[in-house]
């Protein structure tokens, strides 16, 4: 998803404005707020939410992140929808950052990818309902040394999937820790495989509800028990470990399988 001026982030409440400002700053998109909030956050002001959505949906934006109720977003964008090949990616996020919902143009417009990007910033759960992703029930967690090459990461992912008896196309997403957001080799490898990448916040790994196996390296350097296994388990739904933590050169991976009722 391209940064400003292709991306707009819009909110309607004070709590939403705070979250929207953080998303806008991280992704580089323009921020749109009403009244005194626009002045407070140095945002583009609007008076009418409906009119502002009409402007944002006119083709000038490739992506819109709306921090408000899904029902509001649905009503605002419905009159302006044309086709999945023309509409901008729209992602809806509740004002406390619990969910990031791919709302419109999941594949063609990139809303699925944008939802994962927002989730990586806010700690939200990305909500993806497109059939291709819905029918994939494996999540790969990954850690690597700083500066690991794209080639090494691709080799590790493919090798790990082979050991687990699956192919990379079966992966719903790849998950890693917040500290890997700028790991270029990881980003490039996941992009080449056509997968989604989600970065989890530190707080997820520190949750006392989980009893993750602790490894010396992550504990010493990051203060968390691990990266690969926790990432796979935290990013999956009702998971079980299909491939426990496996070291492949400078990369560690683990694969979780989701225990969904209808999968």
UniProtKB/TrEMBL annotation:
GO terms of biological process kind: cobalamin biosynthetic process
A Pfam family assignment: CbiG_C
Domain of life of the native organism: Bacteria
Start and end residues of each CobE/GbiG C-terminal domain: 139-256
Gene3D superfamilies, A to Z: 3.40.50.11220, CobE/GbiG C-terminal domain
Residue span(s) of domain Cobalamin synthesis G N-terminal: 60-133
Protein name as annotated: Cobalamin biosynthesis protein CbiG
Native source species: Geoalkalibacter subterraneus
Lineage: Bacteria, Pseudomonadati, Thermodesulfobacteriota, Desulfuromonadia, Desulfuromonadales
């Amino acid at each position: 998803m391209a940064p400003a001026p292709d991306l707009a982030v819009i909110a309607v409440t004070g709590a939403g404005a705070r979250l929207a400002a953080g998303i806008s700053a991280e992704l580089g998109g323009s921020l749109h707020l009403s009244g005194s909030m626009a002045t407070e956050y140095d945002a583009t002001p609007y008076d009418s939410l409906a009119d502002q959505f009409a402007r944002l949906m006119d083709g000038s934006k490739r992506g819109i992140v709306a921090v408000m109720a899904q029902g509001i977003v649905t009503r605002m964008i419905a009159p302006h929808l044309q086709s999945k090949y023309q509409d901008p990616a729209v992602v809806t996020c509740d004002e406390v950052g619990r969910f990031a919902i791919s709302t419109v143009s999941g594949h063609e417009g990139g809303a699925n990818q944008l939802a994962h990007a927002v989730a990586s910033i806010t700690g939200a759960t990305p909500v993806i309902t497109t059939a291709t992703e819905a029918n994939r029930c494996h999540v790969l967690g990954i850690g690597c040394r700083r500066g690991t090459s794209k080639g090494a990461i691709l080799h590790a992912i493919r090798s790990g999937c082979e050991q687990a008896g699956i192919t990379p196309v079966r992966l719903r997403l790849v998950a890693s820790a917040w500290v890997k957001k700028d790991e270029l080799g990881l980003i490039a490898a996941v992009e080449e495989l056509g997968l989604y990448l989600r970065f989890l916040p530190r707080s997820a790994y520190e949750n006392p509800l989980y009893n993750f196996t602790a490894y010396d390296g992550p504990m010493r350097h990051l203060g968390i028990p691990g990266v690969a296994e926790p990432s796979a388990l935290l990013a999956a739904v009702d998971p079980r470990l299909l491939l426990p933590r496996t070291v492949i050169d400078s990369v560690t991976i683990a694969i979780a399988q989701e225990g969904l009722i209808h999968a």
